[in-house]
Amino acid sequence: MVLYYICIILIGALYIAFLELSKNLIVGWSIGILATIAMLVYRSVFYKKKKGADKLWPAFVIFAAVLVLNYVITSPPIKRVPAVANKNPDVTEVMTIPQGQLTGVYNEDHSVRVYAGIPYAKAPVGELRFKEPQAPENWEGVKTFDHFGPMAMQSRGSVWFDSLSHILGWHDYQVKFGDEYIEDMSEDCLYLNVFTPEKERDELLPVIFYVHGGSLTTGDPSYTEYRGETLAKKGVVFVDFAYRLNVFGYYAAEDLAAESPNGTTGDYGLLDQIAALKWVYDNVEYFGGDKNKITIAGESAGASSVNALCVSPLTKGLFRYAIAESSGIVPKEPFHTFRYFEDAITAGNNVREEFGVTSSEELRNIPASELVKAKTQNSSMTIDGYAITEQPYLTYEKGENHEQALLNGFNAKEADAFLLNTEATIDNYADLLAEDLPGYAEELAKVVPPTLPQRDQKFIIDAGGEAKGALNVAYSAMWFSYSHYVWNNYMIKQERPAYEYYFTKTNDILSNYHAGELPYAYGNLWRHPGLYDEDDYRLSEIMQSYWVNFAYTGDPNGFLLDDFGEPTSELLPAWEKRTESQDKLLQLDTEVKMVDDPNMEIYKVIDKFMDSRVSE
């Protein structure tokens, strides 16, 4: 009998935990607890009556049926993400822009106004799928923009798996004793969000236009790591937005190029970004921003997109400065996020073959919920002759890139998460390097020996191998930091200021992985209670000050800013520009200081590889 009680209680506890991980409604907890109690009482009653104690299977069947039915009925609803964390936020005053009248909402202390979910283009659905973004429609009356728009169509795992990743990966999972929801996702996704300070200023403010990352296949502007409240508080207008991803954003076909008035195909996501940037340029003054002081910023694929915006002929005059975190497409042969037109067409052919159709028009008729399951990779921008007219490095060699100044950099363990399923041993190390660096793997293996450095295993558990630490160093340089080395060199040759960082900060829980710098730079550590200490918050204040100072002047140096963007009496640690005579960058850690670039010898090998590819 005791064993029976233990088993039922254990089943009930595991079931409640599963409901929590799945974000089921709180009423589901109650039903699960009541069902568990009922089973305990039922067994106790039968045991006392000494009859039927061995015939409990009908009760078990009912118990199981109740649990399953309860899970289905109390599944979380699909909703849009609220613009601010505070419940029942106050609504702003009515303002008018060319599209119509609108209101937003205030954050909790009324220091920032947020206008979330403003359409910057028509919904790219139906006949507008696989077409350049179209101008948005006007609306009648006053609309309140208090929720982010739906996330762009993308593959996403089960809710409970996502919860486990926050427990095991981010270590920031929080049990919330209240109803939760699943974020809405739709092909109708072309919306942007404006964060602007409430504090009155004597002049229009600089603007940070942020492009989210996610390998051009996933991601959403509502993610807490780069919400714009904190930077807006410090005196900038912050804008982020959703754009078409994966097959919806980067599918290419010759029939689409033929029907396009611009002869374009394969860059719909990039064209969305350009449309959003043009919207900001045309409208940001209504929100207190200066259209002549726009800084474009992005991380990972967002940084690659920033690089593309810097060379696109369609963006000339739309921004001043650029911030790029952990990626770029300026090398002669980019390792990712970029492809030639022929490769884009081949991928498009594969998509149509996968779905058993012969034309893009037929592909338009496939439901978005099915099309998003495409197995063919569509995660790269392409030279379409319109948004991108040539290999980006050629534009830089001619000095025709648009950014007047560059703040950029990378993290110490960029490749860590991308190598989780790769076992790296001394025996297969050179073969793994040869996958991305054919002909030069042995030379790179001499620069980064397979046994050094040893990998710090306390952050991520994975396939491992004695060469995993070395593989992480090599691939972090190839996939991420090398593009910044090339980008900075072009800026130096053009005599334009370039400031490079090296993020190495870690703590007892988190590492300096890919995207690890985001909550520091954009002031969102507070959204992850318990993960960061005083040193982390101190570094975050320094990084926010650098980013905001750069948006004002193109130079991150100056004074540490207070919570409302006013200069304090404390000077920030000096951040020197990259120059031909020195290869130093700013190390962002508990101590912020200039250090030698740790990857220069790796870059020399990659340079040889790049030159060999161009000469072929």
TrEMBL record:
Q: Where are the transmembrane segments?
A: 5-21, 27-44, 56-73
Q: Which domain of life is it from?
A: Bacteria
State its Enzyme Commission number(s). 3.1.1.-
Carboxylesterase type B domain residues are: 93-595
Taken from the record, one Pfam family name reads: COesterase
GO MF: hydrolase activity
Q: Which InterPro entries match?
A: AB_hydrolase_fold, CarbesteraseB, Carboxylesterase_B_AS, Carboxylesterase_B_CS, Type-B_Carboxylest/Lipase
Q: What are the alphabetically sorted keywords of the record?
A: Hydrolase, Membrane, Transmembrane, Transmembrane helix
Q: Which family does it belong to?
A: Belongs to the type-B carboxylesterase/lipase family.
Q: What is this protein called?
A: Carboxylic ester hydrolase
